[in-house]
């Protein structure tokens, strides 16, 4: 009896959740359309024009404008209509037209990885995105903490590629190529890739990528790709291994613009996931190839010169004695010069 009632309640809740989600999507769409119309218009836009454009009542336009104002949009209202004066650099779903239905937005969350995992387990589709302005339990690779204060960009993208788990590391390559390409395109900075999936500027880490996979022996169920970018955060001077876009550029960036471009780049790179071009692009952007490296991988340390990556994304290292070694995972340290064999 007890369990029956529970499952009934769970069923009803699920239906309620679905309704709430549909409503959220509708509201997000409407807000997106209002913002688009206001941005396209240099003057005041009347409530009537907006309501005709969106096919909705003037009251519901007014309600959404009121809600946008609460979120930090400065919208002037006069008898002539509405005018967008300024907007906050927040990553609301409706700031990404065409994607807003796939975006789950949180002003604050433990980790976008946890939310994305939950969504994936409930059957959320390929391309679902979880964005947070702040994470209180952000995590990095190898169980490290990922500090996620306001001003950074934190999101997880849910993918369901039809590939064998052995090729899953290519998703890291794909994501890191997309981030580096975005930084190069928008700011002309020489962003480089450090194997397996860090993005560096002037040798300092500006972005970290964490991929979590759910798979069976021969097929991937889903991969959640978490991307953290030090955007408008300041990295303490003593943290010599990290930097932020703000610190490098000496000004704040538009996180919204960055993310819009990054989403487009990811989409392009996704098409190359199993193509040789992805490896080619990674190699062109790589700051690891041809460097002496020390790889701390589970159970062993590999020292030598990084000479290539293979089709699964594994790093190939030529050791001092000339033998070749493959690193499938681990931490990579770039060395200034050849290190002695004692490290091996
Ligand atoms: C690393 O370099 O160690 C990977 C860092 C990954 C951080 C991102 S931020 C968004 C997503 N949510 C998390 O908790 N971690 C990833």
List the helices and strands and how they pair.
Layout: H1 2-40, H2 47-54, H3 58-70, E1 74-78, E2 81-86, E3 103-109, H4 112-121, E4 129-135, E5 153-159, H5 169-187, E6 191-194, E7 198-201, E8 204-215, E9 220-229, H6 245-249, H7 255-270, H8 276-285, E10 292-297, E11 300-309, E12 315-318, E13 324-327, E14 331-335
Parallel strand pairs: 3-4
Antiparallel strand pairs: 1-2, 4-5, 5-9, 6-7, 7-8, 8-9, 10-11, 10-14, 11-12, 12-13
Biotin (BTN) binds next to helix 4, strand 5, strand 8 and strand 9.
Task: Walk me through this protein's architecture.
This protein is an alpha+beta fold and 344 residues long. Helix content is 35%, strand content 26%. The protein has helices spanning 2-40, 47-54, 58-70, 112-121, 169-187, 245-249, 255-270, 276-285; strands at 74-78, 81-86, 103-109, 129-135, 153-159, 191-194, 198-201, 204-215, 220-229, 292-297, 300-309, 315-318, 324-327, 331-335. The strands form three sheets. The protein has a seven-stranded mixed sheet, sandwiched between helices. Strands 13-12-11-10-14 form a five-stranded antiparallel sheet, with no helix packed on it. Helix 1 crosses helix 3 (58-70), helix 2 packs across helix 3 (58-70) and helix 5 (169-187) packs across helix 7. The radius of gyration is 23 Å and the shape is elongated. Biotin binds at residues 111-113, 135, 138-141, 144, 146, 154-156, 198, 208-210, 226-228. Biotin binds next to helix 4, strand 5, strand 8 and strand 9.
Kindly list the characteristics that best describe this protein:
single chain, 344 residues, alpha+beta, 7-stranded mixed β-sheet, 5-stranded antiparallel β-sheet, 8 helices, 14 strands, binds biotin
């Amino acid at each position: 009896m007890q369990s029956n009632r529970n499952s009934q309640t769970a069923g009803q809740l699920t239906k309620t959740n679905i309704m709430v989600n549909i409503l959220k999507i509708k509201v997000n769409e409407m807000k997106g359309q209002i913002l688009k119309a206001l941005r396209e218009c240099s003057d005041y836009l009347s409530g009537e024009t907006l309501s005709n454009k969106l096919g909705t009542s003037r009251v519901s336009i007014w309600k959404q404008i009121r809600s946008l104002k609460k979120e930090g949009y400065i919208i002037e209202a006069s008898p002539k209509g509405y005018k967008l004066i300024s907007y906050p650099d927040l990553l609301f779903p409706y700031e990404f037209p065409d994607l807003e239905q796939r975006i789950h937005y949180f002003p604050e969350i433990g980790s976008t990885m946890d939310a994305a995992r939950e969504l994936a387990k409930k059957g959320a589709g390929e391309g679902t995105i979880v964005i947070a302005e702040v994470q209180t339990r952000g995590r990095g690779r190898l169980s490290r903490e990922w500090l996620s204060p306001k001003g950074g960009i934190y999101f997880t993208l849910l993918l369901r590629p039809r590939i064998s788990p052995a090729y899953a590391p290519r998703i890291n390559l794909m994501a890191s190529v997309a981030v580096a390409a975005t930084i190069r395109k928008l700011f002309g900075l020489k962003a480089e890739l450090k194997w397996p999936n860090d993005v560096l500027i002037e040798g300092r880490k500006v972005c970290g990528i964490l991929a979590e996979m759910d798979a069976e022996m021969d097929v991937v169920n889903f991969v959640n790709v978490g991307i953290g970018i030090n955007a408008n955060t300041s990295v303490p001077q003593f943290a010599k291994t990290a930097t932020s876009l703000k610190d490098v550029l000496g000004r704040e960036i538009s996180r919204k613009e960055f993310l819009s471009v990054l989403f487009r780049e990811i989409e392009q790179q996704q098409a190359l996931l199993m193509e040789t071009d992805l490896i080619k692009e990674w190699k062109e952007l790589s700051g690891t190839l041809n460097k002496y490296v020390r790889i701390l991988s589970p159970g062993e340390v590999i020292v030598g010169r990084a000479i290539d990556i293979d089709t699964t994304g594994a790093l190939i290292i030529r050791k001092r004695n000339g033998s070749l070694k493959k690193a499938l995972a681990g931490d990579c340290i770039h060395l200034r010069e050849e290190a002695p064999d004692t490290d091996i």
